[in-house]
Design goal:
Organism: Rubripirellula obstinata
CATH architecture of one domain: 3-Layer(aba) Sandwich
Enzyme class: hydrolase
Shape: globular
Number of strands: 9
Number of helices: 8
EC number: 3.6.3.-
GO molecular function, one term: ATP binding
Pfam family, one: ABC_tran
Helix content: 25-40%
Length: about 260
């Protein structure tokens, strides 16, 4: 199944060019622990990170090292014990619950290993889901959804339910859904974990191509060496902090924890 390059409107392309290479995500001294019978389990320990528009980062590390916890905090689905998270000059944890939900919906796109498509909705409706979280989607958003669905090669499946799609097709829908609100940050939790090698390679290429076009930050938690090597940065989460600063298939800035 083929996809085509998504062509952005001229003004939107100008906005993206202006936002690329600008610091858009900053984490400083992030700490998170969980209570246990004996003593607190420290998962994140003064973790710091800076990323600019267009950067892609693979976070690797053993199971239980805190990768998913970090992703949940960046996605504002969980709160740190201490430290700061700034996305586009906004501290999301300073917002009230309603404001935070709107901020998350507008600024953060999610791609889950199990896709999390609603079974009763077709492809178009699933892609449009973020646009109706706080009201009816606009005509421009509907048009954008159609264009994204075309760009991921799913136009001929636009009215199909998730039960009628393969794993790779569901992943394409999830990628389109993550981009429909033009987020600043895209978070992917094992995005190719349930796919065969060929399909995983196709999805990696597709995701990175679209992410670069949109000038968004892409952060992926993965055990896949292939996916990690495709990202502009790879960092390992060890002892609650990000270590290393290797460069992958493209250049990008990074900040190493001290």
């Amino acid at each position: 199944m083929a996809w085509r390059r998504f062509h952005l409107p001229r003004q939107f392309r100008k906005d993206i060019m202006a936002s690329s290479d600008i610091l858009r995500l900053r984490i400083n001294d992030l700490c998170k622990s969980f209570a246990t019978v004996d003593e607190p389990l420290v998962v994140l320990n003064r973790l710091s990170l800076e990323l600019s528009g267009g950067d892609s980062l693979a976070i690797v590390g053993p199971s239980g090292s805190g990768k998913s916890t970090l992703l949940q905090i960046i996605g504002t689905l969980d709160r740190p014990d201490s430290g700061t998270l700034i996305i586009d000059d906004t501290d999301p944890f300073s917002l009230n619950d309603k404001q935070l939900a709107k901020f998350r919906n507008s600024n953060i796109g999610f791609i889950f290993q199990d896709h999390h498509l609603l079974p009763q909705l077709n492809v178009l409706q699933n892609v449009l889901l973020p646009t109706i979280a706080f009201g009816k989607g606009t005509d421009d958003q509907v048009q954008r959804a159609h264009e994204l669905i075309e760009s991921v090669g799913m136009t001929d499946r636009i009215n199909h339910l998730p039960s009628e799609l393969s794993g790779g097709q569901k992943e394409r829908v999830a990628i389109a859904r993550s981009l429909v609100m033009s987020p600043s940050v895209i978070l992917a939790d094992e995005p190719t974990g349930n796919l065969d090698a060929n399909t995983a390679g196709e999805m990696t290429t597709l995701l990175l191509d679209l992410q670069k076009q949109f000038g968004a930050i892409l952060i992926a938690v993965t055990h896949s060496e292939t996916l990690a090597a495709s990202m502009s940065q790879q960092r390992e989460l060890v002892g609650g902090a990000l270590t290393g600063s290797s460069t992958g298939s493209s250049t990008g800035s990074s900040t190493t924890d001290q």
